[in-house]
Amino acid sequence: MLKGTITSSGIGIGRAVILHQAENAAHPIHVTDPAPELLLFQAAVAEAVHEVEALRVRTLAALGEDKAAIFEAHAQILQDPEFQAQVREEISTHRLTAVEASRRVSQTFIRMFQEMDNAYMRERAIDVKDVTGRLLRKLQQIPEIDLSSFDSDTILIAGDITPSQMAMLDHKKVKGIITEAGGKNSHTSIMARTLEIPAMAGVKDATTLIKASAEVILDAEAGVILWNPQPEVKNDYSKKILVLEEQKRNLLEYLELEPVTADGSTVSLYANISSPQDLASVIKNGAQGIGLFRTEFIFMDRALAPTEEEQYLIYKSVLEGMKGLPVVIRTLDVGGDKQIPYLRIPTEANPFLGLRAIRYCLRNVEIFKTQLRALLRSSVHGRLSIMFPMISNLEEVLEARSLLTEIAFELKAQGVPVSADIMIGIMIEVPSAALLADVLAQHVDFFSIGTNDLIQYLCAVDRMNESIKELYDPYHPAVLRLIGQVIRAAQDQKIKVSMCGEMASLPGLSQVLLGLGLREFSMNPASILRMKKLVRATKLEDARDLSKKMLGLSSGREIKLYLDSLVCI
Ligand code: PEP
Ligand code: MG
User: Fold this and answer.
1) Residue 460, by phi and psi: left (phi above 0), alpha (psi -120 to 50) or beta?
2) Ligand 1: does its nearest atom lie under 6 Å from the Cβ of 429?
3) Residue 75, by phi and psi: left (phi above 0), alpha (psi -120 to 50) or beta?
4) What is the pLDDT of residues 122-162, one digit of tens each?
5) Which of 374, 552, 553, 565 could make an SS bond with 311 (beta carbons 3.0 to 4.6 A apart)?
6) Whose CA is nearest to atom 9 of ligand 1?
7) Which of 290, 429, 521 is the best mutation target for the ligand 1 pocket, counting ligand atoms within 8 Å of the beta carbon and taking the most?
8) Entry pTM
9) In testing the pocket of ligand 1, which one of 274, 295, 427, 463 has its CB within 8 Å of the most ligand atoms?
10) For residues 183 and 201, is the Cβ–Cβ distance under 8 A?
């Protein structure tokens, strides 16, 4: 049995698929006899070329010449005489193993491409990384795993899974995700919750202890993992899954009911999404709109940024899909744990404190402008709000707004229609913005409180770091005080305020938030009906008393203990 942190609740049963990372796998560095290594290298290249060619043929048939061309480029890289000569040289002269020699030469080539002046060539670095990764897997006999299609119900087990790998996932077949690294607040975990895939992180040695194809039970209710279970144990778990499904079905009685408190105040419950595919779940769970569309995910799983036209069609489809309900689309929040190689963010010592989100966009205005144009063009297809992430000062708000105005002006001059009713808002997720909320509120139409980042920046605790996870504390009185302050600033300036961080769906805390005056909540679609049930059972008067009481306590532990002791839904 293994244990770990539950990042997305539920129970999943399936066959283990292990995702090994070839680049980091342990391997011998030196050999005494280079001859077998040279042969190994030659065979691995041939095998990788063969695979790439098969992929080219398959892609050509399924997706056309454009998409297939990438595999032609991959074959060329593998067969590049210079690349091959350098690897052979490393093996023969420095007595390196074929794996180590290939790893070193690959890194040199990736760096060389990344540093090229020509933008097109720079973007090829991702292809080099991709195809040399394949070569390394061949050399280490690590099986290829196609994340976009699995043969049977799968429990995916990995050292870690990046948000872009999550974006590729054949999620209907994935019954659970287990990672050795990662934590509750990573984007990978947030996506697992949106997709309603049970997941656990921080599960030590999972990739070595559990063997490929073993039958695995991931109990992300109790926080345990079992493999090769006895039939009666599996039977018990199958029954538990049925009970969970029944509980979900029972919540459906709330689908048509309004989210009003027991004493008649209206609350709005919106959904967070990261792709148009999430709309089905948004509608199934009766969300009243989209409170956060994380657009960076449409930039992932591809070799180049989506064009203006591609983006326009995506935004249009979401706006149309929501049939006039409000849709908040957040501009590109790249950086931090959301790395997109072709955007070429330099390696940083502290990516979460670095070139992220609006900071990246204001320094790479061509990418930003393309997105803003696509957004403005899409605005006539629904009720659009545009939101800027990671604002930390007033200048960023003014600069982003001025770019938006400039583009709207250009579009109108070209005769392209743009809605006159777009609301412009900002994320409040950096403490400096939260403390300056009274000033910032004078320049925007709405705030959305991003507690995932606000907590990490306020408490100085990396949202991804499992070893100090207890310090990442949504119950911290400083967090509650600051949120209260932001809500009041918005109310004073008569602008809207919502919350789209994960805290918005924590049962006890959401009652405190209601008491602090919050009326708009955005969360993963699967949490909406449970939240509606809770809202309908809450009296605002009680929520106000509760928030006063909680603000009077001096530690997160006390607050959590008190809230956990309440009967929660
Ligand atoms: C947040 O920080 O709370 C948020 C919603 O943004 P993200 O999780 O995408 O950083
Ligand atoms: Mg954030």
Assistant:
1) left
2) yes
3) alpha
4) 667 777 887 898 899 899 888 777 888 888 899 999 988 87
5) 374
6) 294
7) 429
8) 0.79
9) 427
10) yes
